[in-house]
User: Which sequence fits this backbone?
């Protein structure tokens, strides 16, 4: 099968609106180069955090890699991420266990936990202070109340996932927030997503990778040598394998409809506002709609949520002022404050899946084509997972957990 001109290879979207807390004047993306003049082992379509993590991992294994993006790397959805790296999913473990059984649900969570732990150690080994360790607080809400959170904590502990339950009074005393029962989990951290993306791409380029942008790949043509990638303006090059790391600009020819799009909203307080609670904890709610909160390295409070099941840019942008106000009010209530001022607000396209887990694996309808779609609430953690699974697959080594994240796992639901 070829990706013909009648249907674009990937969607083209305005992925974010507003002002993000990462200073755009400090962004130092790698300089663009030319399309490869020789065959490469792997072409990665997408130069965001997913593509960067993949490029770093795959070049470290000695592969020749070309990264292609239609915009400057890291400036799409990556720049809109609040970059809380957690191993807990949007679908609680107790709820996933009801669907899959406890053993299978825990298997998926434990693999994400392990991938996130390994990625954190990798960032530490790179240096440059790329990550900030902090615990995660998961507060009782309308999705999971105190008793349900106790059951969630027990299930975490039974499978070696580091969480413990605290009562409302214990949570308020330890973390200086409004009293609410919750889980405290460790093994989580935060990053500056754009800075980390660029650092990983620089490492890949140092090993001989190439990067070209803005370049739009219009079609993929299978051949005996792999896949020919054809640009919108008629140029082409060959790759033995292609990885679709196009984020929330879906490759609809290959990614099943179960992986859907929505919109999310966020605000950031001025620098120096934090800390207003203890231990630099990341906080989120077992609620729908939820609120999540963290502090950045420069003392901003970053809060977001209020997702809507609409990915239309005009609708998203129209709702941004009102959603920002709701998030600010919820934030103040969570922290037990009368008011918290904010100076930046943004909206972004976001992806979800029925089980809160990503799409990682071989595309069924084209040989040598792979999908790395971090849909769900943990996109950067899922990128670390995708790098492990696809690295093994490309080396034809079995990964015992690969089927858990197969893009076509919902076909019989």
Assistant:
């Amino acid at each position: 099968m070829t990706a013909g001109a009648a249907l674009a290879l990937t969607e083209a979207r305005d992925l974010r609106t507003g002002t993000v807390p990462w200073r755009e004047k400090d962004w130092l993306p790698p300089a663009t180069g030319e399309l490869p003049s020789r065959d490469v082992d792997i072409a990665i379509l997408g130069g965001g955090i997913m593509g960067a993590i993949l490029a770093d991992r795959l070049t470290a294994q000695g592969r020749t890699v070309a990264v292609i993006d239609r915009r400057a790397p890291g400036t799409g959805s990556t720049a809109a991420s609040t970059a809380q790296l957690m191993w807990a999913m949007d679908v609680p473990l107790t709820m996933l266990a009801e669907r899959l059984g406890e053993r299978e649900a825990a298997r998926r969570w434990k693999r994400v936990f392990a991938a996130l732990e390994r990625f954190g150690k990798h960032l530490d080994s790179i240096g440059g202070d790329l990550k900030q360790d902090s615990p995660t607080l998961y507060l009782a809400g309308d999705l999971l109340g105190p008793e349900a959170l106790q059951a969630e904590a027990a299930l975490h502990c039974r499978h070696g996932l580091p969480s413990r339950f605290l009562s409302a009074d214990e949570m308020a005393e330890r973390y200086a927030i409004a009293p609410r029962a919750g889980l405290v989990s460790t093994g989580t951290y935060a990053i500056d997503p754009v800075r980390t993306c660029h650092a990983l791409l620089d490492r890949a380029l140092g090993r001989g990778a190439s990067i070209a942008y803005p370049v739009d790949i219009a079609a993929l043509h299978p051949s005996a040598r792999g896949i020919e990638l054809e640009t919108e303006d008629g140029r082409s090059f060959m790759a033995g394998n292609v990885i679709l790391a196009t984020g929330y600009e879906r490759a609809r020819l290959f990614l099943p409809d179960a992986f859907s799009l929505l919109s999310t909203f966020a605000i950031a307080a001025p620098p120096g506002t934090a800390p207003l609670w203890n231990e630099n904890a990341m906080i989120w709610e077992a609620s729908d709609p939820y609120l999540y909160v963290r502090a950045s390295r420069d003392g901003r409070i970053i809060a977001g949520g209020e997702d809507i099941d609409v990915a239309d840019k005009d609708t998203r942008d129209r709702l941004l002022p009102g959603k920002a106000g709701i998030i600010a009010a919820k934030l103040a209530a969570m922290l037990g404050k009368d008011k918290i001022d904010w100076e930046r607000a943004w909206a972004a396209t976001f992806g979800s899946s029925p089980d809160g887990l990503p799409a990682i694996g071989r595309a069924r309808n084209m040989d040598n084509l792979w999908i790395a779609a971090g849909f769900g609430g943990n996109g950067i953690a899922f990128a670390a997972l995708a790098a492990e699974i696809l690295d093994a697959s490309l080396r034809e080594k079995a990964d015992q957990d690969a089927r858990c994240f197969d893009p076509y796992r919902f076909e019989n639901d």
About this structure: The CA atoms of residues 88 and 109 lie 7 Å apart. Residues 1-6 have pLDDT under 50 and may be disordered. The radius of gyration is 21 Å.
